[in-house]
Design goal:
By secondary structure, this protein is α+β, with helices and mostly antiparallel strands. The protein is built from 34 helices and 85 strands.
Length: 1531
């Protein structure tokens, strides 16, 4: 019920309000008391006293203020005390006290009175903390708890203030002390002895109590008109209140207020509103109208505790501490099994109080009342039954833990969808099924889930809810959407899948859900839409302290927002970036914080906004905390500037009414025009590239990311019809669009494979082009590695790939089919353009001899390549041999080539543009291949899970590489160039380019061929790297530019381009061209060896090579660069379906897991956060059904304990992510409730115990989901002009997280309300129905019953008409109603898919004339009411009637309440009859009756609205004739 209720219910209340009376000396006239009872809290005593004259109040704060009459209105008091007394002293207002508000006189009227009882003095006070006992001030009404319970959320019915009256009450506890009355008996004894008194006490001292309620600091003292106080110690006696029952008033009261309570439960949408109904129940039953008649009934009989025999009951019979029925703590590992037991039950009928009956009802009514009591007494058994009684039946489904247990799995759905998280709350995804938006968007090497906001978010959020909600909760959530939960079933437990969801019903659910959680509001990519706090600064002033344009941190206090609705470039707003400031510093209110918050009212936010900009009276561009003189950046004075707040996003805010203390929900509408006024880049909403600069957005030039100049691969896109307009290709979801990562303009690259060596390696060629300058701007996108570009030759492949030199453009022999680069002209070399015939170029035959004999000094070695020059051949130059010095000079550099008067070809590659025109930027195939294709090919697919595997960095090498080991240098490899071999400088190996095939295909190419692949290697043998052992944390590792952190291995490694092998030789120590060029990282400049060798041994101390050192290891490290990818895509359907994923995300990175633990007293599962820990630094985290994760605090940060530490914790085991189905099952099984997966019984470890004996469910702690292969999808793309457009849009049904949370909690409230409703109905309905019957006989007024029977509701439940089979049966003492095989006979108001099922009881009124007392002809004569068609008596009833409403065709069980002693032996056959509202029984129905373990008579096929009664009939009953012949029974 919450802390407020528990605190308040232990208090003493004083309720006072006064009406005018004749002015005289102040004195009390008379006092009376009555006892109230609060649910779960115990008795309260209320005292009412009348004044002999008007009450006045004298201020203790301002002695010059005259006495004020207590009956003044709030406004009159405010006017009287204005300027002299604080406003909180207005006793007609409200006062903030802790977490609640109370009527101000509760606090301001302390220290005036006390209650005396047998030496105990209870003073009047305001203290609001348990366990102090004192008088607590509240208004005097007939229902004295009205105001108090309303403060705790109960519905407050308007009631008149009792005139000229003082009222107070106190909680009566079992404590003993000078200020504590221990129990009601002690109070009654005091009243009987005349020692219960109300005494004036305005100055006494109470040691140990006054420090919290000082008598001399009360705000007001009670006085008369002249200001005189009452005589200290004077007072009056308190007598017991005698109430008079008014039956007609009682009927009206009970009907209207019962309806209100039920309605409160039906519409509850939070825990508070659900619990308020219980407080309202207390309000109801303690009202004088109800209590006056309740007292009449209570007086007619005695109650007792006695043993009763019950069949098939779960109850404690012998107080055996080893019996789970007697000890809740045992229910963790065992269950209370139904059985026939003798049970002690309190509050049972203990016999009639005939003396009281005679006194109250008159001698003539005694027999009638006795007969009524015989029928009524079963009501007491039904209410107190240990399993199906009012409290017992509701206990399981009203547990406070349900709120967190049921909401936790789904309340984060809104955040997951709006933030673009995967189904497992990660930033990456492998397929659409891992995203609630069903869109896993590729971003090159990784993919992420598309985010959604506004109205587009509602469907994926509902998808998330459906996949995670508890089954029973979903049924109630579905009811709120008015959908059939059998057609849209919960998927949370894994027993159903999306194939079970009806598409039409799903569409209905989405529409209804959108209406439930949507509001007209501002929706956008950024949640900077909630509340703006602005200050009236000019654009230049604002930007001067914005520190360079676009503020992205809280330390930059303001940001300028242009008004996109106007053309004025200086129109806009200077907005505080975060809307939050700690008011520290020299001019601060120390420790205070000012912040705007969309959950506050606009007026409250304006005050906070003012505080933000006036807290330090200035803004500093580089510090919000520094003093004015300490600010080293730009600063602007804000004192005296106008401030304003703008609410962009519609928000519901709870606003308190100061007069009533009630909180009411008010919706503050967002500002539609302001919402759409802010603009942003249409392809860069976040300003990541453009920094919010409009010009950069429009041109895509001058981009900067984290201080680095960057360019996008599609920055050059222009409108074909107007080249002055820049365009872009975007991928959009909802209203968010981003630059499409694969979109690029054509690239013509020169000297492409030598990095940024543009000056020395480019230029020349047929046109004698000048060398290129390497781009210093980092290009993002495909081709980023091409630093040397011919931007004027990109229009076509023929322009880039000079036909005078290049081969016919074509893919290379083994080039991947998806690779669109043209690389067959990439080689840079020296050639002789003057030789055009092969015979003039050839160096074959006796070339060396010819050169020697010719007498030349330098002989040029050439080679005719027939492929080049469009297949016409080209004479390539390789080197020169000096016959005098016998030395060889390789001609591999441009400068050397031109020194020999030859022509240098810079080598070019060409990539056509992709997704860069209106025709191509329409869609792409999301099948995981690179580069992406525009259309999906038949048969291509994608897997919705990952396949952990060892992969090369270049996916084109996934199949492996084939090396030719006989070629040990580039020259030897180039001799095989025409056969498709290339030299890899990183691995220093000659390999078959774009090799396809396995090991056998490689060795079939000839001797000295070796096959190498990453595939098939496990994690430990996959990655080879240089381990930087000095860096042991991620932050330290990543702070070093030469290293990066490997998350999976939790190690720091040196970047591959710095160290890719175990050992190396320093470049400067190598003295020859060949040895230099064969060392990775080294290069020969013609005279010396330069560069940095890549050996791990050269990196210094604390570095270690991880991996092998063989030649094969070097190829895997240098060429393939094998790496372990935990989340790699599955490439084929077979690998996909053979893979899968365990939902043990909690085990990522390893976890020390302990099993769930029970509450030591009550046996339920302890929440992981609630488990006791060894110290404050030792906590637990949730791990789903599997258990709790052990964590600890290190330097204030919470982290998991390590594997080495895990063994120190009792019952702990180290768990890692499961990689197979068997490993997933290895997490174990958990026993839980069939209705609530999180109601765990961890001690039940066998199916026999869990399911067979106890009726629970044994489920895996984690579930394995196999991979699913599906056809690849084409994703839409958007071609558009680059523009600065609306950042946000006004959405008429934008998703509201507040409304979503209320919907979730409303579903839980509705679910719990079913049990609460039945609990309250059980407590009130039978009594509210029976009380008028007794009161009419016993002086309560009103007419006698018009019928010889009564009918009342026993239970009520809302059901889904399409999913009745999954609903819980309604079980009560009188019977049970199982709707699983039924159908709805009606629908709830406003719903087409649900019904309200009510379970009612029909009871014949037994009086003296109907056999309620007196002599009987036979033991069963009072029950022989069953006749056949002939009118003959053929049987007897053995119980009362039960009625089910709302469904038909249900199974009904009825408790045969007639004792065995009142059953005649001749009636041997069990059957069922119906009974009319007038008490006429039908003939036997011939039902097949079975008897359940509780001894109830059960049958099927019951219809709605029919009263069924269990009977015993004689054999052959149809043919029995009467003697004499009476009226036959109805047929």
């Amino acid at each position: 019920m919450g802390g407020l209720r528990l605190a308040a219910l232990s208090l003493v209340f004083l309720m006072a309000a006064v009406a005018p009376a004749a002015e005289a000396a102040i004195a009390l006239n008379d006092c009376y008391y009555r006892v109230l009872h609060i649910l779960d809290a115990g008795p309260f005593v209320v005292v009412h006293c009348t004044f002999a004259s008007d009450l006045y109040l004298k201020s203790t704060i301002n002695s010059t203020l005259p006495p004020l009459k207590a009956s003044l209105s709030k406004a009159e008091i405010e006017a009287a005390i204005a300027g002299s007394v604080p406003s909180f002293a207005n006793w007609k207002g409200r006062y903030n006290l802790g977490d609640s508000t109370v009527p101000a006189y509760v606090v301001t009227w302390t220290g005036n009175l006390r209650l005396e009882c047998g030496g105990v003095s209870v003073p009047q006070g305001a203290e609001h903390d348990y366990p102090l006992d004192f008088l607590y001030t509240l208004p005097p009404t007939r229902n004295s708890l009205n105001e108090l319970l309303q403060a705790m959320g109960a519905f407050k019915w308007p009631e008149p203030i009792l005139e000229n009256t003082v009222s107070f009450a106190m909680a009566v506890s079992s404590k003993v002390g000078p200020t504590a009355i221990p129990n009601v008996k002690a109070l009654n004894d005091c009243a009987a002895a005349g020692t219960l008194r109300v005494v004036w006490d305005q100055d006494s001292s109470y040691p140990g109590w006054d420090d919290r309620n000082p008598r001399n600091s009360s705000l007001w003292k009670f006085v008369d008109a002249s200001g005189a106080r009452a005589t200290p110690g004077s007072g009056v006696a308190v007598t017991k209140r005698l109430l008079t029952c008014d039956v007609e008033a009682f009927k009206t009261f009970a009907e209207t207020r019962m309806t209100e309570i039920v309605n409160m439960l039906e519409v509850a949408d939070s825990r508070d509103s659900s619990e308020s109904a219980l407080n309202t129940y207390d309000n109801f039953r303690n009202h004088e109208t109800f209590m006056a008649c309740s007292i009449v009934l209570d007086a007619l009989f005695k109650k007792e505790t006695r043993e009763i025999s019950l069949k098939g009951v779960r109850a404690c019979s012998d107080n055996n501490p080893s019996d789970p029925c007697c000890s809740e703590s045992l229910r963790w590992s065992d269950c209370c099994v139904p059985g026939d037991k003798i049970v002690n039950v309190s509050g049972l009928f203990g016999g009639a109080n005939e003396q009281e009956i005679t006194s109250r009802c008159g001698a003539s009514n005694v027999q009638t009342v006795l007969g009524l009591l015989q029928s009524f007494k079963e009501v007491l058994v039904a209410a107190q039954h240990p399993e199906t009684g009012c409290e017992a039946a509701a206990k399981e489904r009203t547990d406070d833990r349900l709120w967190e247990q049921l909401s936790a799995p789904i309340k984060e759905c809104g955040r997951l969808v709006e933030d673009g998280k995967s189904t497992q709350d990660t930033d990456t995804c492998n397929g659409d099924s891992e995203c609630w938006t069903e869109s896993c968007v590729s971003e090159g090497d990784s993919s992420r889930c598309a985010a959604a906001r506004g109205s587009t978010a509602t469907e994926p959020i509902l998808r998330c809810v459906l996949s995670n909600a508890d089954r029973e909760l979903w049924d109630y959530l579905a009811l709120s959407l008015d959908i059939d939960s059998s057609k849209v079933p919960s998927l949370g437990d894994g027993t159903k899948s999306w194939s079970d969801v009806d598409e039409t019903e799903w569409d209905t659910a989405v529409t209804s859900f959108r209406d439930k959680v949507g509001v007209p509001s501002c929706a956008g990519e950024y949640q900077d839409t909630n509340m703006w706090c602005t200050v009236a600064l000019t654009k230049s002033e604002c930007k001067s302290i914005q520190a360079g344009g676009y503020s992205v941190g809280w330390h930059k206090m303001v940001v300028w927002i242009d008004n996109g609705a106007t053309s004025d470039p200086n129109d806009g707003w200077c907005k505080h970036w975060a809307g939050h400031i700690d008011r520290g510093g020299a001019n601060a209110q120390t420790g205070d914080v000012a912040h705007v918050n969309d959950h506050m009212s606009d007026a409250e936010n304006l005050e906070q906004c003012k505080a933000i900009f006036t807290a330090v009276n200035y803004i500093c561009s580089n510090s919000q905390h520094a003093s004015y003189n300490d600010c080293t950046g730009a600063k602007v004075i804000t004192a005296g500037k106008d401030v304003a707040v703008y609410r962009l996003k519609t928000q519901s805010v709870w606003v308190k009414d100061d007069d009533t203390g009630h909180y009411s929900e008010q919706q503050f509408q967002g500002n539609a025009s302001m919402c759409e006024a802010q603009r942003a880049c249409n392809w860069d909403h976040s300003g990541y590239y453009t920094g919010g600069d409009e010009q950069k957005c429009l041109t895509a030039e001058g981009l900067n990311v984290h201080g680095r100049a960057v360019s996008l691969s599609n920055s050059g896109m222009t409108d074909p019809n107007d080249p002055s307009k820049k365009t872009t290709c975007m991928q959009c979801w909802g209203n968010r669009c981003d630059n499409f990562w694969a979109s690029s303009t054509p690239i013509c690259g020169a000297n492409a494979y030598r990095g940024d060596q543009c000056a020395s390696g480019t230029g020349g060629g047929p046109d004698g082009l000048a060398p290129l300058t390497a781009s210093t701007i980092e290009t993002w996108g495909d081709g980023a590695w091409v630093k040397c570009r011919r931007e004027n030759l990109t229009e076509s492949a023929s322009m880039c790939l000079d036909e005078r030199v290049c081969p016919v453009p074509a893919s290379e022999e083994y080039q991947d089919e998806n690779d669109i680069w043209v690389r067959n002209c990439a080689q840079s070399f020296c050639y002789d353009p003057s030789i055009t015939l092969p015979q003039n170029c050839s160096t074959e035959g006796d070339w060396w001899g010819k050169m020697w004999n010719s007498g030349v000094t330098d002989a040029i070695m050439t080679h005719w390549d027939p492929v080049w020059r469009q297949g016409n051949g080209l004479c390539k130059v390789h080197g020169s041999y000096n016959f005098q010095t016998y030395s060889w000079t390789g001609i591999y550099e441009k400068s050397v080539c031109e020194a020999y008067n030859m022509t240098w070809w810079e080598g070019r590659i060409y990539k056509p543009g992709q997704f860069h025109t209106p025709q191509t930027c329409t869609q792409y195939c999301d099948d995981g291949t690179w580069p992406p294709q525009q259309n999906c090919k038949s048969g291509t697919g994608i897997c919705d899970t990952s396949c952990a595997q060892c992969l090369p960095d270049d996916t084109n090498l996934k199949g492996g590489v084939c090396t030719y080991d006989a070629a040990t240098n580039p020259e030897m490899c180039s001799q095989n160039e025409t056969d498709g071999y290339e030299w890899d400088y990183d691995a220093q190996a000659c390999h078959k380019d774009k090799f396809v095939g396995g090991s056998s295909a490689c060795t079939n190419l000839g001797p000295s061929h070796s096959f190498h692949t990453c595939q098939g290697r496990d994690n430990s043998a996959c990655t080879q790297y240089c381990w930087a052992k000095a860096f042991t944390t991620e932050s330290a590792c990543n702070a070093n530019s030469n290293t990066w952190w490997m998350w999976h291995e939790q190690r720091c490694r040196v970047h591959h381009h710095l160290a890719d092998r175990a050992t190396g030789t320093t470049c400067s120590s190598l003295s020859t061209h060949d040895t230099c060029n064969l060392e990775r990282g080294c290069w020969w400049d013609g005279s010396a060896c330069n560069g940095e060798a890549r050996g791990c041994n050269l990196m210094g101390a604390n570095h270690e090579w991880v991996g092998g050192t063989t030649r094969a290891d070097e190829i895997r490290s240098g060429m393939l660069r094998c790496r372990w990818d935990e989340y790699a895509r599955c490439g084929t359907q077979s690998t996909c379906e053979g893979a899968g994923e365990c939902n043990d995300w909690w085990a990522y990175g390893g976890a020390c897991l302990v099993p769930h633990a029970p509450h030591p007293q009550y046996g339920h599962t302890l929440d992981c956060h609630q488990r006791p820990s060894e110290d404050s630094d030792f906590k637990y985290q949730h791990a789903g059904l599997a258990g709790c994760i052990v964590t600890k605090k290190v330097n204030g940060a919470t982290m998991r304990v390590s594997e080495s530490e895990c063994g120190a914790y009792q019952g702990a085991r180290w768990r890692t992510r499961a990689e197979t189905s068997s490993e997933c099952l290895g997490h174990g099984e958990v026993c839980h409730s069939p209705y609530n997966d999180y109601d765990i019984y961890g001690g039940m470890v066998t199916v026999a115990r869990c399911e067979t004996k106890c009726g629970n469910v044994m489920s895996p702690a984690a579930r394995w989901r196999a991979g699913k292969w599906s056809n690849a999808k084409a994703r839409p793309l958007t071609y558009a002009q680059r523009s600065y457009d609306k950042l946000n849009v006004w959405d008429l049904k934008s998703f509201s997280r507040d409304k979503f949370e209320r919907w979730v909690y409303g579903g839980i409230a509705t679910m719990i309300a079913q049990a609460q409703k039945t609990k309250i109905i059980c407590k009130i309905a039978p009594f509210a129905t029976w009380i008028p019957v007794f009161a009419a006989q016993c002086g309560g007024g009103g007419a006698s019953p018009a019928s010889n029977s009564i009918q009342y509701t026993l239970a009520s439940n809302t059901v889904s008409c399409g999913n009745l089979a999954s609903g819980r049966p309604m079980k009560i003492y009188d019977g049970s109603l199982d709707p699983s095989s039924a159908s709805c006979s009606s629908r709830r108001a406003g719903s087409t898919k649900s019904a309200e099922v009510t379970f009612q009881k029909w009871v014949p009124i037994a009086t003296a004339s109907t056999g309620g007392s007196g002599r009987r002809a036979t033991v069963c004569s009072a029950h022989e009411v069953i006749r056949n068609a002939n009118g003959a008596v053929v049987g007897q009833k053995v119980g009362d009637g039960l009625i089910g409403n709302g469904v038909t065709g249900f199974n009904l069980c009825i408790n045969p309440l007639v004792p065995e002693a009142e059953r005649c032996s001749q009636y041997t056959i069990k059957d069922i009859v119906t009974v009319s509202s007038t008490g006429v029984y039908s003939q036997p129905l011939g039902k097949t009756v079975t008897v359940n373990t509780q001894g109830h008579y059960c049958f099927s096929g019951a219809t709605s609205g029919t009263a069924y009664v269990p009977v015993h009939i004689q054999s052959g009953w149809q043919t029995v004739n009467p003697t004499p012949a009476p009226t036959p029974a109805p047929t």
